[in-house]
Amino acid sequence: MKELIDQFLDYLAVEKGLSQNTVKSYRQDLAKFVGYLTRYGVANIKNVTKHVISKYLYFLKDANLSPNSISRNLVAIKMFFRFLVAERITEDNAAGTLESPRLMRSLPDVLDTSEITKMLEAPDSRNLMEQRDKAALELMYATGIRVSEIAGLTVDNVNLDMGFVKCTGKGGKERIVPVGQKAKIALLKYLGKCRSKLSKKTHDKHLFLSRLGKRMSRQSFWKMLKKYAKIAGIKKDITPHTLRHSFATHLLEKGADLRSVQEMLGHADISTTQIYTHINKTRLKGIHRKYHPRG
């Protein structure tokens, strides 16, 4: 089965163009499934039936996996069997008619505008490395790009004269995202002073560089956010996605249309973007309960 999974993962990466992170997730989910099959003596993929897969889903449920995690595992199995049938490795799509458990999508944490302001103002502009951090924070909030996207940005991806960045999202898809004036100012300051010193060490073309002049890792952006959230006195659990969620929520609150926000976020399906309309409704209900005399 390992060889079949490797073939499937190559197909996802080469023919479907899925990102390394997505392919890695499929590998982990399918490895877990094969481990379950091995424990119960199912050695041949042709012996995997709908009943076997159903039992596996109940096994995941008993292991206290969330409906979202179980659904993700089932999607991996479904795509794997679809691939096997297409390649004529098996005739029966054992996972074809199985339904995913009802998704309970939790609403992501969002910072309000005052919290955003405190965090963006936390870096000390007199410190060269904190100029870099200020530029990175401003850009993340200005564009809503993912942490993997900002880590992958090069200097050539930024056009401050025109006011946009070009980033590569999931599946290698490129998109153009506008950059606001405050982010532009922070970036110009970083590029003019801090980055020019860092890049002399390695001549690395990435936009955001470490002290050693190398590309900043995703983990470095996480640590940076945690640092400035603490300085700003924010108690919420902050991740790079928190700025992405805040970007989308604040745009919609100010009247931006859903399609434009979808395009800026790089969502393939507008239903993914629609979660932010639920955030708005939840926030409005909270405000109503707090301030209405009969709330």
Number of strands: 3
- At the fold tier of CATH, the topology name of the largest domain is hpI Integrase, Chain A
CATH 4th-level superfamily of the largest domain: Intergrase catalytic core
- Radius of gyration, taken over Cα atoms and rounded to an integer in Å: 23 Å
| Helix fraction bin | 55-70%
Major sheet characteristics: 3 strands, antiparallel
Please summarize what this structure is.
This protein is mostly helical. The chain folds into two domains: 2-86, DNA polymerase, domain 1 (Orthogonal Bundle); 113-290, Orthogonal Bundle (hpI Integrase, Chain A). Helix content is 59%, strand content 4%.
Task: Explain this structure.
- The protein has helices spanning 2-14, 20-39, 50-62, 67-86, 113-120, 128-143, 147-152, 181-202, 218-231, 240-253, 258-265, 270-273, 275-291, and strands at residues 158-159, 164-168, 174-178.
- With 295 residues, the chain is mainly alpha-helical.
- The protein has two domains: 2-86, Orthogonal Bundle (DNA polymerase, domain 1); 113-290, hpI Integrase, Chain A.
- A three-stranded antiparallel sheet has the order 1-2-3.
- A hairpin with a 4-residue loop joins β1 (158-159) and β2.
- The radius of gyration is 23 Å and the shape is globular.
